[in-house]
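Appendix B. Raw example, untouched.
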Amino acid sequence: MIFTETKLKGAFIVDIERREDSRGFFARAFCQNEFKAQGLKPIIAQANVAFNHLKGTMRGMHFQYPPAAETKFVRCTRGAIVDIIVDLRPESPTYLEHVGVELTEDNHRGIYVPERFAHGYQVLRDKTETSYQVGEFYAPGAESGLSYNDPRLGLEWPLPVSVISQKDQEWKLLDEIESELKDRMDIRAGRIVYRPSDLRSGKPGPESRAL
């Protein structure tokens, strides 16, 4: 695999290395050892699939607070998306900066999203499917998000929004939650203890997760 770090420290674009022959090609899509070598979290706690009927569908901007902050490794397995991530680490020199990448069924590209980042994407083709390999269990009590069109984030989406969930429409603007966000995301104060079980409540179905 080919790892390219973005301007956001710890966030990587990951490309496959194809071995081609008359049948097609073979490539490694994930490897714990290669992830470790890049300093990335190699744990997959859950694997999820999202299917999107219509071009223009919006999902985002989602994250989980510590102690259930999660990594994500995202690919588009059918169709195409524009994927955007936002650095929510208060101590980071790139706090609130973002990067975007086009993930398609043709380029087989993935994006590794570190803990304490917001993540979202817009669908570029009808009948698009994405896969998420997530490094932490879903924790309803830690789930949150930001508005995809928050003016402070300045995210540029390529298409008018055709479909968006009510949940994603109702995420608050950064100005309304920034004080809480900084407090709950701040690792410098030594408040974060990684005990995700503290935040789980029952066994929610996949429909309740903000994907």
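End of appendix B.
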